[in-house]
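Researcher: Re-running this chain for the archive, since the previous output was lost when a drive failed. Same request as before.
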Amino acid sequence: MVKSIKAIRTALMTVTFVLLCLLVYGFYAVPDELYCIADKRESVNEIYTITYGKKIGSDARRNFGQSEKYEAEVSLLNVIPVKSSSVTVKSRDYVEVSGELFGLRLFTEGVMIVGTDEVDTEMGTVSPARSAGLQKGDVIYSINGTKVKNSKQVSDIFLKAGAGSMTLEYIRDSRRYSIPFSLAYSVSEGKYKAGLWIRDSAAGIGTMTFYDAGTGMFASLGHGVCDVDTGEILPLSNGDIVSAHISGCYKGKSGKAGELCGVFNPEIKGELLCNCETGVYGKADKISVKSPMPVATKSEVKTGKAYIISTVDKNGPEYYEIEITKVMDNSSQNKNMVIKVTDSKLIEKTGGIVQGMSGSPIIQDNMLVGAVTHVFVSDPSQGYAIFAETMLEKVRALYGQEKISAAS
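Model: Regenerated structure tokens:
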């Protein structure tokens, strides 16, 4: 009897201690301001639940839905009060998921320096670019006050300048600098040269992630288009997307990434507005419309079975099984998940994730949770992915900027 009483007492003390720990943890871990989706508004997680009080505000979200703010009480196991919080309840976002292949043509704002070279002069070899402090990755913005648009324009300006000095304006790390710049006379070529290798455009294929009917905008790639020599994101001046079709595929293998091969079609489907770390975005009016799909919030993404939608052959977009092996709500903008291809059919076709599949939508629990961004070169079956919510936030921000520009 005594042993039974001691066992019951020990069990009660253990339960009390655990509940006390959960109360203390909940008080500090549950934020004072919570955000919930309208169709999942009852709980913070499996342990802490929300009891709604009076409504304290509402806000129209740029015609994309309504958000409402409430006073709320958070309780442990729906019984024990933990703390008071305010809760903003947002309506669920929907987009039209794609997975289609497209061609991309991008022209830079200014011209990017992709390399420097030496010029053979009568006094020996010199490098005008390096002497002026220019580096690979710098973007030449203007020369003598004239904004630079392409490589040919720069070559023409240098040709006319000859031995004269000029003022060169360039951008590095988002800061603009102005320097005097002079060419050097090449003995072997008989002309003045800058000792610069420059680039003004890029082209390739990628995968469309989604189209947002409310804004008329699309999101793709999940990462920016970078220069192949510098690795820097190319500053966008203008560009467009065109339809494309698969012409072949180089399978990925350990140590070497594979690649989808595509052929551009003449039909222009949209214009580019942004090339940044989270993807390539733009306006489009010729995207095939599909049934809207809900967008998962970052907190709803979990490890486990999922699917990607990719175009890897003439059959068009198809679902392929993957596993989300890790979710990382960290500071990285486009490496929020680790995914692994488990579909034998896709592995047979491509070896896993290959170049050109960037932007492939990731579906979990019938919601868009993210997009493929990178492949692990050491293991093509694995790669990184970005949260879909991050890409949609960028779409909405760009749309807001477009409306402000149109009104001004």
